[in-house]
Amino acid sequence: MFVALAPPDDAKDELAGALHFAYAKYPHLRWNRIEDWHITLTFLGELPVTVVPLLRSALAHLAADRPSLDLDLNGGGHFDERLLWSGIEGELDGLHVLADEVRNSVRACGIAFQERPLRPHLTLARGRRGQQADILSAAASLTDFAGRTWQAERLHLVGSNIGRGPGVIRYRDIESWRLAGGS
Predict the structure, then answer these.
(1) 61 in active site
(2) What GO MF terms are annotated (predicted)?
(3) Exactly one of 38, 61, 96, 156 is catalytic; which is it?
(4) Domain of residue 95, residue span
(5) Secondary structure letter of residue 142 according to DSSP
(6) Considering 20, 78, 121, 156, which one is annotated as catalytic?
(7) 121 classed as catalytic
(8) Is residue 183 included in any domain, yes or no?
(9) Residue-wise pLDDT tens digits, 17-30
(10) What is the domain-level CATH number for residue 173?
(11) What is the pTM of this model?
């Protein structure tokens, strides 16, 4: 499980259009499905379903008190030459505050998880060994990408399932909550 924000469909479509060339040139990369694109605020790991009611209550209260954030997808990069991402710009201070508050809310529920610092990004694709040059080239193709500003209006509790095929992961919303400033 993890807690995330998701760009609206038109912002995703804008980025997908910028990736059209990379999709065609690097079909062997493991591209994330557009409907699965998200910004992870807090990764919780594998948890029993019994914690979901606790998280629902805590996250609902948190969302009701937090304003929406103006964000945009911007540029591209990579982690360890194996993971391609798009950057996040906009109200980054607010994004970090929200991530801290999510972690505090989860801890207050008595749920243990490995804490990781927030590195705002949207994961696009993964490469296997020997595909580092493709990841670097795909990241370079996004250097000038600057998406439109959009409002992050909903906080999502997301579950992941292993899909068919090696390394295939599918995400599903367990629940989402409108942030106080969301329309």
Answers:
(1) no
(2) 2',3'-cyclic-nucleotide 3'-phosphodiesterase activity; RNA 2',3'-cyclic 3'-phosphodiesterase activity
(3) 38
(4) 2-178
(5) T
(6) 121
(7) yes
(8) no
(9) 999 999 999 999 99
(10) 3.90.1140.10
(11) 0.91
